Every structure is written in C-alpha cells, then in structure tokens.
Amino acid sequence: MLQNLCQKMFRRSLWVYHANSGGCNGCDIEVLNVLTPYYDVERFGIKLVASPRHADVMLCQGPAMRSTAQALRRAYEAMPSPKLVFAVGSCAGGGGLWYDTYSVLGPVETVIPVHYYIPGCPPRPEAILYGVALALGLVDKQVAATRIGHAAFPVPRYHPEDLRPEGGLAIYQRQEKI
Amino acid sequence: MKPSEILTPIKQRYGTAIQRIDRLDDRRLVLHVDAGALKSICRFLFRDLDARYIAGIGADDRPYSGRFMVAHNFAFDRDGLLASVLAMLPADAPEVDSIAGEVPAASWSEREFHDLVGIVPRNHPNPKRLVLPDGWPDRVHPLRKERPWNDRPDGYDEDRPFAFDPAPPGCVVVPLGPFHPTLDEPAHFRLYVDGEIVRGCEYRGFMVHRGIEKLAESVLTYNDIPMAAERICGICGCVHNVAYAQAVEQAASIPVPPRAEYIRTIMLEIERLHSHLLWVGLAGHILGYDTLFMHCFRIREPVMWIAEKISGNRKTYALCLIGGVRWDITPELHDELDQVLNRLEAQWRPLVSALLEDRNLRRRAAGIGVADRALIKEQGLIGPVARAAGIDIDCRRDHPYAAYDRVDFDVILAQDPDVWGRISVRAREVFESIRIIRQCLVKLPAGLLQAPIADELPIGRIGMSSVEAPRGESHHWLITGENHRPRRWRVRAPTYQNLQGIPAMIRDQRLADMTITLGSIDPCFSCTDRLETVDVRTGAVRVCPPEELRDRLRQRWNEPTTP
Q1: Strand A57-61's sheet: what is its strand order?
Q2: pLDDT of B231-263, one tens digit each?
Q3: How far is A4 from chain B, CA to nearest CA, in Å?
C-alpha cells in the first residue's frame, strides 16, 4: 500500500536530507559512501541536499536524544509533503545500545513518524541503496528464510559462573548460549 | 627521565601535601594529593614541568570511600609518562578549586564533572552547563551512584533555552547547526559576526551525549564494554575499543599475547587509513574540490572491504576482548591485505603529489584556522593539529602500546599551523600507516590470541591508556570495580581538546573559512559527547531583520575600502 503510494508520489528524482540526531557517525559515513564512485546513488536520481526544505526523504541516524528532539521535529516539519522518513541503523530503528539511558528518548519514531527501517550497525552502503530502492519500487522485495548466525561468534561474558577453573586459573571459554 | 626524576621536584616542593604516590608501572604514575594543593600542583606540572594536559575526571566514590574523587591527568610526552593527580573531596561539600584559570585546557573537563557528578569547580571562569541537555534539572547529576542509568528526572523542561552569552556590541549572531550542511553530526555554534569577519563564537554541543559511561558503570560488564566503546565513534571506533581494553589490562596487570598486539596494531592502522582518506576527501568537499572527494572515497573503499574480510564488518570491528583479540589474520588475509596496500599506495602517491602541488588548494587553505604553539599548549591541542604546527607528539611513539615499539615509523610534521598543514600531515601519514602494517605482517608472531585471565579482575585499581586516533590522542582512564564492571570509566576523545581551540582559531577570520577551520580538526562530536541535529534558530537568538541587514550592507558598501 505504502509502496504503491510511494511509486505514485515519488516517481522522479528523490532529494534526500540526512539528519543525524545523535548517532556515532558510522551510519553517516556509510550514507556518504553511497554517493561515491563505487555505489553512485545519483544513477537513481537520488541526491543529497543540505536543507530539509528541499527534501522529499529524510534519512535519520542515531537515536532520538533529549537535546535534539525539538530540532529533529522542526526539521521534519520543515520538509514539504509528501515526505518519507527512513530510520537508518540500529540506533534510529530501535534506540540501539543506549535506548533507555538518561539522555536518550529511544528510537527516532518516538519523535517523528518513520516509514522504513534499514537495520545494521552500520548498514552497508548496499543495504541503504537497497532500502531506498525498495521503498520506491525500483527493485522487488526478495525474501529468503534465514537463521540469524548470532551464536556463531558469541562474546564470552566476563562473569564468575562462566569462568572454568583450570589449575588455579580460570579461562575464557566460548559459551554455548548467551 | 624516569618517574623518579619527575617526582623529585614535586616532592621537594609539596612534601606534605602529597599523601601517596603509586607507580602503576614505569610509565604510569598516580599522585594522591590534598584537595587544597591540587590547583597548585597542577599548575606546577603544567607550567614548570611543561606537561601536556589530558583530561579531568570527577567520580562519585561515596559507596567505597565515602568521598568524591577528582583527578587531572597529564602527559610528559618526551618522557613517555602519564600522570594522574588525584584528590578526594568530602561527601557533604564536593567542591574543589578550579584549575581552569591556570590550565585553560581543563575548562571543559571541569564543566563536565560539574554537570555529571555535581563536583563544583570553585571560581571557574565560565561555569555554564556543558554536557546535559538544556532542560535537565539543575540538581540531578546522572553519574552519581544513586541515580539509575535510565533516569527520567522530575522537572525536565524541554522548552528551557540555553543561556547564551550576549553578543559583543555591533555583532550579528549567525547560528550554525545543529543540523547543517558541512558536518553530519549535530552541534550548535553561535557565531558573532561583524560584517564578514567572525569576532567570536559560543559552542553548544554535547547533543550526542548518550550516557555510555553511565551504562558501563551500571549495566555492562568488562567484556561488553569494548562493544559499547566501539560505538562511541563510528570512525575511530577501534581506537576506543583498544584503548579501553588496554586500560583494563594495565589496571589488572594482564599480559597480552604478542600476536594479539600485532593484530591490534594492524587493525588500528587500517582504521587510520580509512579515516585519513575519508578526511582528506571531506576537506576537499568542504573546500569545493569534489574531484578530490570522489577520488579519496574510490581509493578508500578497498580498505573497507579488507576490514570486512578480517573482522566481519566494514566499520565496527569488534576487535578486542580483555586480554586479547577476537579476529586472526589468516595466511589468505595476509596476502590479500598486502595486495590492498600495494594498490592503495600506487593510487595514493600520485594523488598526494597532485594535492600538495595544487596552488589553488594551497591558497585556499593556507593561513586559515591558525593554531599557534601558544594556543596548542594552553588548550592542549593534539594530533594532526599539533603536528602541523611542528610539535612533535604522537602517542604511538611517546607512549607506545600494542606493537608500536617494535615497528619503525616516522612522525609526520609540518611547519604550517593552518588548514594546509593539517591536510599535508594527514595525507602523508597514510604512507606511514602502510609502512607499519607491512612491517607487522612480516613480523606477525605465531601464538595465542587471548591471554588466560586470572579468576576475577582486582578491584579498585586505576588504569590509564592513550591511543593515537587518526585525529589525535584518545585517552581512557578507569577504576576497576565490583560486579565485573569498572566503577568509573572516563573517555577523553581527541576532539574534546581540539574543539576547545576552535573559538581562538576562527577569531577574526572570514565567515566562509569557518566550516573548513572546523572541518580541519576533523570534529567528531559523538566521541566528544559520548552521550547529539538540524535547525539552529532555537533559543533567544536575535535574528537580524532584513532591513537591518540591508542597511548594514549599504553601510559597508559606502565605507572607504581599506588598502
């Protein structure tokens, strides 16, 4: 439904405004990377603009912070309708590691409406391209059943229960479960 | 000079005021001093012994010693020594004399511990809020142990404006940020502009303060923190990751296997390669030289790919655990990394020679954003900003860590303390990084990736670690604690010091030079804030009405041109 609407509303060049409301820069540089020769987003007519007043799409990075919530809201309001908001990265999509700390409000959806989520920490440039292209109907959604390989590289946690004594020393061991 | 030689004059002068001296090892010193003598001792270290100021730390130590703690860290770069001057403050009156008058570089650190811990720096020259959001209630200090990490204090007022200083007479306020075209990250500058010339500025940043230090003290455990530390900054994440791990290892005396040290060195240098290439490109972009931007990113991309092959991610390497590393350099990766370096060098060399010969670029970048030696000393500026002014400091050589003491490299210097010098230094440092990685690949010893770790890490030990990030020294200071997490962990990112030099660097410059001056320190607000926008016209900004602007323009038009 939204995709059909997007195809109708944003048929031509998209102008993108990118707002970092409190992220670590990782997503920023991947968005920058999308502009550069290897990925070259301009072939899809997508262009980065400096002012929200020129933009069709806002790419949000970083969690919604107490200190930037107001500015983010104003930037969103400054965009002309119709407008789309993408949450790029784990922080914008779900608040990230610090979703509940004292200076963070949570994911950006707590402040402004979000239409699409591009996960990753940070998302690869291909993922950002794919996410935007998917929203615009430039590519078809392809879904394959995958199992997340989280358990393949578990981080051993430093905790006495996990430390197995061995000649007076306890050693890190990979845990089966986290 | 050994620690003992530095101690002799301090002991002679302040015999009774020094309660205890801990030598953590040959290169780390902790002086426990009386709070009354703190200011005088810091002054002595900074002025008479010519130490470089690193960072100030405030900690709530009430659950353990019943008191508050304040520490100021100094580096003796020529002697390879890091010193922490530590004083305890009574729980009922956490006040200490401000050292910012004597040591200007300490200004932000003191404002920070005032905000976060509630330790009052007496007679601070500019005692304003620094870190917390504007609406945060005054009497709530999030790093105090009784406050939870997910604090939602009563009395939070989103509409409370920040009390900016009044603009100097005759100046117009130009707000820049939080969301603005040149920088990706939010930060707000209020520029006071007289015609075309910037007369001063006030910074209101710390919009990316995400509360990482609080999370580390209350939620995460030792091995979770490297992952959080890496997300302090998306560009120099691995630096924080390694610096944290090293600080814990130093506090707990954990020897790291040599192979792990070499792998850390390789990953740090891969990160420096990508960061330098990124920054030179961005500097070109800010100056309107987009060809350079595109070339830099083209050359940089294979570095990202090889990082992904080694660690599984382009940016966040998840490299360190306490006592070692998680990723190995396999023989296949070894060869591939070698090829990437060869190609990178072959492509970067002609670009650098074109760049450094470019007269247009040179005329645009030379003479702007000048940070002279006096400013560098006073504000504790570091990294390429200092090296461009000919100050020979580099943590990799001065305070060696990982495998840097076993590789051979030059510290790149320039004699132009301006934006041009910084471009030149960073462009040429790429070759040194390539050299270091090649040597590491040759010398890479076989062995363990992880050190076996003794049962529990000792409690109450202090760890200090400085790592040379692409943009300067990153300093981590921590005290180990109970429940498998540090009691206090303080991160001082390079931008934290470099940004303090910005008001002096842009004073009396043209407005159009502001962005590249700011860009030239490679500001990384997320590092600085660790805890960050778009439109700046919030608060009581006097927006110049169009008629006034027109009048001013006309007035300027009619002024006789100065020869």
Answers
A1: A46-49, A14-20, A57-61, A84-88, A116-118
A2: 888 888 899 999 999 999 999 989 999 999 999
A3: 30
